[in-house]
């Protein structure tokens, strides 16, 4: 049996990654793959409590980074590693690239500090594949405009999301082999075609 894979979905809010994630997971299941879907911040009972705080409570940018990685530590220990060890694939809606994009790019937390946290929390574990849903910020903002309630991140200005987007792209250029950049402003069908190609190559 081939090794279970760890796949993450990333992108600015409004890129449509959650919809595509459902479709992608179904397509893998249809190929007989046993998988688990999870998310960050969250994925464990403690992580979900931290998510509530992170999405609603104002805090210092470094506190935000530390809490993201604290939730992640629990997620790696309780969910991600045990599943992979049992041969179950893990698909996570966000992982550490989001901390580099939002806390690093968006909030300006030093990359060296984030790299230390990353090393500490999952130094020997990286996603096998990361799907980055890239989209012009104005388009993502228009998609969010229909949402009734926006969390602390979604309420940020366009300039914040521009920095997040650029930090994601910079991160994808650092380890291009791990990333598949998806042009998320395309139609749903076109995006699904790109996802099909990716699945065929896994
Ligand atoms: P998300 O699950 O995309 O929100 P939604 O349920 O509204 O689709 O992510 C929640 C927010 O958390 C998102 O705005 C990005 C932010 N986030 C960070 O800032 N840093 C991180 O490390 C992670 C995992 C998420």
Describe this structure in words.
- With 202 residues, this protein is α/β, with parallel strands linked by helices.
- It is built from eight helices and five strands.
- Helix 1 packs across helix 8 (188-201), helix 2 (45-56) runs antiparallel to helix 3 (61-85) and helix 3 (61-85) runs antiparallel to helix 4 (96-106).
- The chain is globular, with a radius of gyration of 16 Å.
- A five-stranded parallel beta sheet has the order 2-3-1-4-5, with helices on both faces.
- The chain has helices at residues 17-30, 45-56, 61-85, 96-106, 111-122, 137-144, 158-174, 188-201; strands spanning 6-11, 35-39, 89-93, 129-134, 179-183.
- Thymidine-5'-diphosphate binds at residues 13, 18, 39-41, 68, 93-94, 98-99, 102-103, 151, 153-154.
Give the H and E element order: EHEHHEHHEHHEH
Which ions, cofactors or small ligands are bound in this entry? thymidine-5'-diphosphate
Shape: globular
Average the pLDDT over all residues and give the rounded result.
97
Q: What percent strand?
A: 5-15%
Q: Round the Cα radius of gyration to an integer and report it.
A: 16 Å
Q: Gap between N and C termini, in Å?
A: 14 Å
DSSP strand count: 5
Low-confidence stretches: none
Which structural class do you get from the secondary structure elements?
alpha/beta
Helix coverage percent of residues? 55-70%
List the helices and strands and how they pair.
Layout: E1 6-11, H1 17-30, E2 35-39, H2 45-56, H3 61-85, E3 89-93, H4 96-106, H5 111-122, E4 129-134, H6 137-144, H7 158-174, E5 179-183, H8 188-201
Parallel strand pairs: 1-3, 1-4, 2-3, 4-5
Bound molecules: thymidine-5'-diphosphate (TYD).
